[in-house]
Amino acid sequence: MTVRVVRLGSPRHADEGLRIGTVRRPPRGVPKERFAADDWYDLWYPELSPSAELVKQALAAESEKEWQAFVRAFRKEMDAPAARHTLDLLAALSQRADFSVGCYCEEEARCHRSVLRALLDERGASFAAEP
To answer: Model pTM?
Structure first.
């Protein structure tokens, strides 16, 4: 059993399981009833996305220094009790169920999902092998 970190809207892997959208907003122009069918997500969970202020900071980051400032700030947000409990739950679930978490960003290295991957890894999550 594993967790995958995915780009929302990308084709699903056969054994991906439930796809969780860890984004601040639903996809624009997509009817709610199409979210799962069009490979966006099955469940929207914005609590694992950066705050609106941090989303702006991440999108504006041009240098590595600016990106690392975003990473530190997002990690601080994810250190709140509710976020810590959710991350602990997902890491434990990855030992018993297949699911994925994701965001819209094209490049994972410059997306909050790279930080989520690291946070889940630090908690002992089991990850799917990359293709």
So the answer is: 0.93
